[in-house]
Design goal:
Elements lengths: L1 E6 L6 H4 L3 H6 E5 L7 H8 L4 E4 L8 H6 L1 H4 L5 E3 L10 E3 L1 H23 L3 H17 L18 H6 L4
Parallel strand pairs: 1-2, 1-3
Antiparallel strand pairs: 4-5
């Protein structure tokens, strides 16, 4: 069973903001509400986890912590890295298995978002777009046409099914 740590949920909202039930059937999910203040305490707390999800930028994740958590990289096979030319660098790349996992998570996210949007009237979906763009800009997120690949759309599932090439 893959163990997943969700860090920095200081407002206790992570489990309420999404349906985690499908993931929890086959994975162990633990949410950390308190900040892990130093490399040693973070390494001890996260040693048994296969995946670490950092919700916010509050907790620094320095190279020393990555090196302590080699199990995330080597044992699970999701990441590959190291710069043989310079040991000071840690260049992480997704393995094929890691890319497949990310693609699966993003696909599930797109479907979950589409299901919520399909329950909204078309006019309200359309009105939501500028609000979300403003929200993303205020949060410092990149705002461009590529964000739609995350699953946001103003068309219903029926309209998407009728579209050419759908």
């Amino acid at each position: 069973m893959v163990a997943i740590a969700v860090l920095d949920d200081y407002q206790n909202v992570a489990l309420r903001m999404a349906d985690w039930s499908g993931l929890q059937k086959s994975h162990r999910l633990v949410v950390f509400n308190q900040r892990l203040n130093d490399v040693e305490s973070a390494a001890r707390a996260l040693a048994d986890f296969d995946v670490v999800c950092v919700m916010r930028e509050r907790m620094p994740v320095p190279r020393a912590l990555f090196e302590r958590l080699l199990g995330l990289r080597n044992d699970v096979g999701l990441l590959d890295g190291d710069d043989p030319a310079d040991r000071r660098n840690l260049l992480l790349q997704l393995t094929d298995q890691g890319r497949a996992l990310v693609d699966d998570v993003m696909d599930r996210r797109r479907h979950a978002i589409a299901a919520v949007l399909d329950r909204m009237p078309a006019l309200q979906r359309t009105a939501l777009v500028p609000v979300l763009v403003t929200f993303a800009a205020a949060a410092g997120e990149m705002v461009d046409e590529h964000l739609w690949s995350l699953g946001w759309t103003t068309s219903s599932a029926d309209e998407r099914a009728e579209a050419p090439g759908a």
